[in-house]
Amino acid sequence: MDEFDIETPATPDLEDPVLIEGLPGVGHVGKLAAEHLLEEFDGELVRRVYSEHFPPQVTVDEGRTELASAEVHAIRDADRDLLVLTGDHQAGDGPGHYRLADAYLDVADEFGVERIYALGGVPTGELVDEPDVVGAATTDGFIDDLEDVGVEFRENEPAGGIVGVSGLLLGLGERRGYEAACLMGETSGYLVDPKSARAVLEVLQQAVDFDVGYDALEDRAEEMEEVVKRIRQMEQSAAPSEEDLRYIG
Amino acid sequence: MDEFDIETPATPDLEDPVLIEGLPGVGHVGKLAAEHLLEEFDGELVRRVYSEHFPPQVTVDEGRTELASAEVHAIRDADRDLLVLTGDHQAGDGPGHYRLADAYLDVADEFGVERIYALGGVPTGELVDEPDVVGAATTDGFIDDLEDVGVEFRENEPAGGIVGVSGLLLGLGERRGYEAACLMGETSGYLVDPKSARAVLEVLQQAVDFDVGYDALEDRAEEMEEVVKRIRQMEQSAAPSEEDLRYIG
Amino acid sequence: MDEFDIETPATPDLEDPVLIEGLPGVGHVGKLAAEHLLEEFDGELVRRVYSEHFPPQVTVDEGRTELASAEVHAIRDADRDLLVLTGDHQAGDGPGHYRLADAYLDVADEFGVERIYALGGVPTGELVDEPDVVGAATTDGFIDDLEDVGVEFRENEPAGGIVGVSGLLLGLGERRGYEAACLMGETSGYLVDPKSARAVLEVLQQAVDFDVGYDALEDRAEEMEEVVKRIRQMEQSAAPSEEDLRYIG
Amino acid sequence: MDEFDIETPATPDLEDPVLIEGLPGVGHVGKLAAEHLLEEFDGELVRRVYSEHFPPQVTVDEGRTELASAEVHAIRDADRDLLVLTGDHQAGDGPGHYRLADAYLDVADEFGVERIYALGGVPTGELVDEPDVVGAATTDGFIDDLEDVGVEFRENEPAGGIVGVSGLLLGLGERRGYEAACLMGETSGYLVDPKSARAVLEVLQQAVDFDVGYDALEDRAEEMEEVVKRIRQMEQSAAPSEEDLRYIG
Which CATH number does the domain housing residue B40 bear? Predict the structure, then answer.
């Protein structure tokens, strides 16, 4: 294998597509949101990216192995053509993050993408009933558009900047002429958070102009509500350790 | 030295050989199993792989030093020709894992290998009397074959996937057209485990169709039984710390 | 993006400029000092350096993102032409430090720089009322010049040498024919220290021969004095934990 | 700077020189021993090796900075021509260790070296009154020669092999046709140990056939004896923590 090995199972013509990224991160918000789109719509795998910058690992699902990769699916049955970038891994080394982000932007190039949406979560440190969606973007025009659909732009948030592929899709994307934004759902940071993923998608569907149902995500949110209820009961009797809360789901 | 330096002491003609990998890992199960084959059969060193991706280290045996390397031996006195990959080291960096696995697959290429067996252990967290062998493979056909000889394929196991060279022999191997499987003997994860290695080999010899004795491995297993007995006695009087258990052997 | 991506918004003619570096480090002394020059004088951005050796990150300021970079500004309204190197990041990997320092020295080359001043802090472990400025330099002549303006050169200080870009601007700079010095203001190591930054600048302005006001830095120093006062009160009642002191500011 | 930058201040003709390496390591035994040779004999700097694989750092000595490097001196006033490799740093990354060791072997090549001696310490965990010298070598002939001058070759020692440049001078050296040995003085591992360094040199001078005085090393050993005495007194009153003992000197 070379540094990158990119499969191209299909290259459909897309009309003015946007790229939507949802890789693992805080509360798995971005990943849940992107995967929800792939469940609700009829996606076609168009690119699969293998790289030595991913962890040296295969995942196992009912005995079948799969080499670490990222996938790009094309969705053409939404009101707007979408490219959805998902996967289980970030890069394992610093320069690898830059090179993977560049590889993803090459895919965006090939399909004529102009706007990029990176989806993720922003940790609040406590359980959030009605998560807001915090934004960051590469242009003032994009910020205005997103404010119109309810995204909040805050002075010093997220304080530590945006790290990993999401951040670099904006940073490197801007240098290559894309308009890019990151939509971050508020989330405790302790739990897998489908409610926050829904909040992000509700904003996204207005911004991008497509229509999607939330039943599956709602089910997962209700399961998590149960977990949250049990945690709140525990909090009333005794403060749970941070460990108890770490990514239950 | 270049990135890789591969010695080729011999290149015998092999008939339909399978590649068997046993490098260091959980319970040293894979390494014990592969080394047992080299003790029981008459192996010929065919390749030695040096690389700057190995730790910067020589081992010392009675004063003689040996540079970190991996070895491939050909076995032709079993009922089936075998190539056995052994060594003391995994790669020291992420991309190095990918590149070493590729170097090993190049060797498999040269000898016309079609099927690859990566051997290892899967940690259970407790002492196991009769270890099962858990599997993962790149094709459904290979899974069927292995189920026939008693390998278990479980829904979410191993949960963290398969990491390191074993994982990549499957992941990269599949991309290069090999059928590859990982056979993982259940093992506590705390002790060097010859019994688990034997369980793996018993499955392997049925799958590959060769015949091997287990006396040497049996002796080592009995030594470990003694260690286990002492640990169980300790457990009855007082719980041993995890440190007491870590790789005694 | 390649390993480096360097924007060149302007290339003004400078007369005998000196390069002044102030990147993040102990007490943020160097960064505060360099940024103060950019506030007081009329700087023009001449180079912006992007690199995969920076952390994979964008900063966010009121919603607008900016890819990790370092900036070089030219100042021509001081008594002496200055090039000021600032930024929010050190390299993320060892060879990356060398390569970034080389990239910065290339910029110094282009503008005909002969002397380089790296600014920073040296940790004392306790609050310092009147910080001295400790120096290190590549030539005895430069040491003499700096001793004349009050810089202290001590036998074994800093004991651990100078690490990161500051150190390499001296080490690599010397090999490329520059005279280079590091000016390190004494600082506790626990607090952002504008007073130490002022001490460094007061020495620098004599050495380089320019004139600058300190009102803005004075204001920040007074804010920190308040913090220090509260800490001293705390010290009288109870010793604060090291954590309480870590980079308050 | 490229990956390596090697200065060649002199290239004297040497007669059958041996390479002696003494870089930082356990008890600083190798470094003390190699530096003692440079103090006692009249060495000439022949090569200075800079590399991005060293830590990004300058050392500071009375205000003068020096970029991380390794030095090779030629000694021609001993009974045997010597090349002595010293420095303050090991590599900062795994492949860097391999590449630096290769660069050092290139220097050995240029001067026609046939035998290499890597000097170091082997930790015993307790204070040693009369340190033995433990050996490891690339050939049985070399082992025989060293046994003749009192070097001990033990079955499983050092258990963890030999790590870093010392190990690779043997491992890579062997592959390039050198005979190479590592001489390791027993040492507690807690203290800088000039006595162990002397033990190593006494063996080395017999093996290589040169004559050297030990006054300077004796003085340092006596200073350390004082430290050891105080520690033994402390041990009688109360067991000192490991921290108290870590590299006092």
Answer: 3.40.50.10900
